[in-house]
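Supplementary Text 2. Reproducibility record for the structural model of the 334-residue chain.

All settings were left at their defaults, and a single model was retained for analysis rather than an ensemble. We include the record here because the model underlies the residue-level annotations in Supplementary Table 4.
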Amino acid sequence: MKTAWYNKKWGIVLLHIAAWVLLFSLPSLLTSSYNNDKPHDPKENDLVNFIFIWTMNGTWVLLFYLNALALIPKFVYKNKYGLYVAIQALLLTWLLTQSALLFRYLIDKEHFMLGRHILFNFFIYLFFLSSSMAYQMVKDKIKTDRINREKENENLKTELSLLRSQVSPHFMFNVLNNMVALARKKSDLLEPSLIKLSSLMRYMLYDSDEEKVSLENEIDYLQSYIDLQQQRFGAKVKLNVVFHPADKPYYLEPMLLIPFVENAFKHGTGLIEHATIDINLRAENNVFNVTVHNKYNPVSEEEKDDTSGIGLTNVRRRLNLLYGNQQNLMISEK
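Retained model, structure tokens:
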């Protein structure tokens, strides 16, 4: 995923510089807006004022980042509040001393008032102190949320991988039973069936590791599985399979559809009279519909084995994890 420019180091530095320039330019902009008719004092030393103003501005910037990046993590986050307050008192004293010396010797020694000077700088100090604290806390909150999202994504990937791996053995139990049946019958269909099985294994072992696969490949996988099952049951099961051509290329998570087809063959055959399985798949206008019907008879249903229900349980869980409220799964027994 491409990183946005404002999340890159140079972008962050650029945004910080722009914010400081805007903040320190506000007094000049406001002064020029409200004092356009004020005559310029010819005695005013622009160079001296410039040195004073930007020395103090540099000091405020230094205090902001010193507090945010060093003092808060080292003292506040470690509950060393006494040391933090003591350091802040020392910094405030240093700031007031520096400001007083600069003002007295560079600006106006005669009109310097200590009380007004302390009060003025104290409130500015509180502003920058609270701003740096808010900045660092918001920054840490964003970092924590990002780490939590990454952990959640990793947990999601792990869970999906485990769910997917559970589907594979369920599928293999059925297919290998088919192979055993063909071998016992010494059927000529065994060799092409093994070739189909090898292609299915290749898809399961390699393609299913991808985050998404094309709908076309997933349909080929389903078709190969259906062909193998049709070889096993022959005329005992009536199959109505319709895969409508998609209106454009689509992609989905692999091994997502096979559990429905598996369960149709597992629970819709055997002792079911006139077994019929209908499979219909349509993808158009960004909506994907899959319908699988099979005859159901709870009286004649075979006793479930230990792996029964793994496929549908997992696919429901996978749909919830992957698509949330953008999917709808309906299962009815009748």
